[in-house]
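Deviations from the work plan: none for this task. Representative record:
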Amino acid sequence: MLLDVARGFVRDQAPIDAVRAQLETDTGFDAATWQAMVEMGWAGIALPDTVGGAGTGVGSAVPVFEALGGGLLGTPLLSNTLAGQLIWRAAGESAAEWLGRLCSGSVGTIAYLDYADWGAANLGVELGADGTLKGGKSFVADASVADCFVVLASEGDEAVLALVERNAIDDSALTENVMIDLTKRAANVDFTGVTPAQVFRGDAVAAALRDTLLLGALLTAAETTGAAGKCLNSITEYLKTRKQFGKLIGSYQALKHPTVDIYVGMENARSFVYHGATVVGDEALDRDAEIACRMAKVAADDVMVFAGDRSVQFHGGFGFTWECDSTLFIRRAQWAQQMYGGAIHHRKRLASLLLDS
Amino acid sequence: MSDNKAALSAFREEVSAWMSENVPSDPGFLLPLTFLEVGTEQQLDFLREWQHTLWSAGYLGMHWPSEYGGQGADPAYQYIVDKELAKHNAPIIFNTIGLNWVGPLLLDMGTDEEKAKYIKNILSGEEIWCQGFSEPDHGSDLGAVQTRAVRDGDDYLVNGSKIWTTLGNYADHMILLARTNPNTERKYDGLSFFLSPMKIDGVEAHPIRKVTGEYGFNQTFFTDAKIPASCLMGEEGGGWMVAMKTLEYERGVTAGQASGYWGVTIQVDDMIEELSKLEHDGEPLLSDPVVRDDLVGFIMDAKALSLTGRRTGIPALTSDYPMGLALSVKYRGTEYERRMKQYTASKQGAQSALYVGDADAVSGGFWQRAYFSNFGATIGGGTTQVQANIVAEHVLGLPK
């Protein structure tokens, strides 16, 4: 099973010391690890085989992300996968060359947010009549290592996708963000004056964007669920070994019962994420798939925020230190809960989907 | 469609048609929401006849062996029947302790003689079963039970009292956990398990009124009651293991129950339908953004339960904590239902203050009663808090 293979990979390649070694590097990941992932076919795992991907459907990326989350492993795979989805869904096989590059490990990323609001139209970057872009994007994941950017822009009233090569941008146009989760990287990017290598237009763009954002929520949820499982392990290990007042602290119900709630929340999130994996496909996402992606994100966010928060608290004074892995978990929780829309964003949309039909 | 799927689909149609013909209409008196609240002879007679009708049609205990009154069918068939019972708003199948706990226990661990003697009458409704585990001073701490059974020739002489004995005042038999040896090193080793008669001298069941205002359970007193030694199940002193196995069936950790339809099924859709009739600030309640957000939470809780239920049987998807989903099902399910019913009972404006019997109560006070009744599920069979300890200790490996 792919989950076991992926977990084995993470165990071998990314013990926690290796993860910590990357926290304060420029790229946030080990190039050899990324190369090994590419060789396993993960860079194209969500893409059809006609464009160089695995051809097993986008859902097959779910166990890989769950495993990566379990190791808190920083890689550009999420950015790369979603850039691939956006291009594939907007342009299909006509973009085979771009997609082939992504599958072979050349990193792509999506430049989506104009500012902090995942729910806004984010059409602030303009594509002018002279063929150049004007404006910048915020929080562009893995921008500093990306070879190409899929930039959401407006051309008149229309949403378009502009493909920008990294070598068309000056280094000075990138302003690295200080991330709350040090396994993650992002930057603000000014695209003013840049001429895109290619522009995708037409009706497919809006649908592609909508579906890619939903898949972003699902894959982030998968990664977050993996992290929650790992966080749970770290809590239970501590509760089984730490003694106070002559007793193992795991015997106290005040610690035991919230830990059970983390377990239950993690299992629920896994159920939502696996369900999501079975209802998304290469074609446009239907209502069930939309509901599944949104529910998965809500469930994963909720349990990870709770788990990360309780992990710091239950480790006591040690939990408050940089040395304790709770630091990594609580920071991952705070990063993940906003990515591709937070719980409130998705619950509001679920209310319409579930109650107004 | 595979042959099996086609057969199940045809069966579903057959059962649905049968139920349209045979599910009794409203008898004109209040029926219990669950098997825990059978409180009048009128209810008892009605439910007994209904169970007998269902069994006679071949739709109860379908996966139990045919020699004991079942059909020897795949469990999927009974599952379909249970679903159709809910769909047709059928009266509950009330002999639950027999059907879901004692029956599977006997099929699993009983002697051929015990199976032949008891199982068919459980299915037909001819004999009602109750459970004598909890005592006034020992509920969650079951290993500490004090009711004494002393060997006296061919009998055991029983003294003590049991509490929360659901159906105890109507029951023919009790599964009884009693102390046969007070001097063992481990308290568990002094316990024995009996298939004990109820309608004998020295056994009295006194009904207890519940928070719903209804009856259904009892305190059962044993005063020099003589139980034949042949009623001992397993070995003397080996009762704890049998009791633990019983609890696996009671809590749904192990499958084999004759019918899952032991209470009126209340789904999140029922909640939304009820709330859609209500108003708040002169507007439909369902247009209130706070309520809408709450409902998303309830719908997700329900969805999580059903998705996780489906995943429970797939080992590859549960490998991290192999028994975790089964051992947490009571913890996950019963608390969600309690919150859901309380929520619905409290969104009716001033009518939230009305109860069953008031002509103006929303749906006859159904939700208020259902909320209170639900404590039977969060307390009975091991409280939520004990369930949390079980998950913590047996799934996560945390210390006692």
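The mean pLDDT of chain A is 97.
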